[in-house]
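Researcher: Next entry in the queue.
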Amino acid sequence: MLDTSVLVLNRVYQPMHVTSVRRAVSLLYQGVARALDEQFRLFDFDSWAALAAAVNQEAIHTPTRAIRVPRVIVLVAHAHLPQQRVRFSRLNVYARDESTCQYCGRRLPRSELNLDHVVPRSRGGSTSWENVVCSCVACNLRKGGRSPDEAGMRLLRHPLRPRWTAVFRHAARRATYQEWKPFLGLVDAAYWNTELRD
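Model: Structure for this entry, 198 residues:
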């Protein structure tokens, strides 16, 4: 339970990253963060610990009480998003393409996928976000050293460099919770981050 995931928001409710329950409770205890419940109410450590954990809710058990597990915390002072780029790596290409062959659309285990250069390297294609996709072995062999058009194949999606988000950073684990949804979708994020006026 202590190693499960908690979404961390900055003070303007933008997703920053994902941490463990152990670290989230530590941040709550230190006063660096507040827990957020389903009604979007903020709680410091004492008020969160005073909430009774319902029977169907996850809890951390101490000798004297059960403390409800926070799934979303808000940092008290931090307002900026980290300016990080998604590193170009095999794991991140698999995460971007959701372990799906970008030619035939089959979702496969990573052991049955490889990376394909859309414009072959032999023709000057670069090894970059914009030119590399997941491909199953059969599609990669079928395409060979040709372009997708020459091989009579179509890409499901044009490959692009992903933007960094807490969700993408966490994509390999894919453990998300209902409480995270209002902060992860673009429509919901726009709702939470729109400037309110009189």
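Model: Residues 100 and 129 are 16 Å apart (CA to CA).
Researcher: Noted, moving on.
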